[in-house]
Amino acid sequence: MKTIGVAAAIIIEKGKVFATQRGYGEFKDGWEFPGGKIEPGEPHEVALIREIKEELAADINVQEHIITIEYTGYEKFDLTMHCYLCSLVNDSDITLLEHEATKWLSKENLYSVDWLPADIDAVDAISKRL
């Protein structure tokens, strides 16, 4: 089965985690950390900055790697997701270009959205930091 490599931004501001709701495709309406596919030879951090600009019209600082998830539970592909702690640059405004909705989730309501299966391990990892 084909493995897709993606980079995901775990953006935390004032103790809250940024989540996005997919607006298209097979996993429409599921909640995830924003990000996307890594191009061949592209460094993870560069892919992440590019993807956030494309999806949210926002600029981020990539701070540190949190977790890499190898997820094999999807029907059509396997996923390798590299998750990085990020922050918005200069209170960069967020514009939804591909997502339906966003939420800033506190530790108490971190599990209140329907996270996509591959994102759950990242949610578990970040919950320990809040």
How do the strands and helices of this protein lay out in sequence?
Blueprint: E1 3-13, E2 16-22, E3 31-32, E4 35-37, H1 44-56, E5 60-71, E6 78-88, E7 99-105, H2 120-127
Parallel strand pairs: 1-6
Antiparallel strand pairs: 1-2, 1-4, 2-3, 2-7, 5-6
Overview of the molecule:
- This protein has two helices and seven strands, in the order E-E-E-E-H-E-E-E-H.
- Strands 1, 2, 3, 4, 5, 6 and 7 form a seven-stranded mixed beta sheet that branches.
- Strand 5 and strand 6 form a beta hairpin.
- The longest helix is centred in the middle third of the chain and has 13 residues.
- The chain has 130 residues and is of the alpha+beta class.
- 16% of the residues lie in helices and 41% in strands.
- It is globular.
Short summary:
The protein is of the alpha+beta class and 130 residues long. The chain is built from two helices and seven strands.
Question: What attributes does this structure have?
Answer:
globular, 130 residues, alpha+beta, 7-stranded mixed sheet
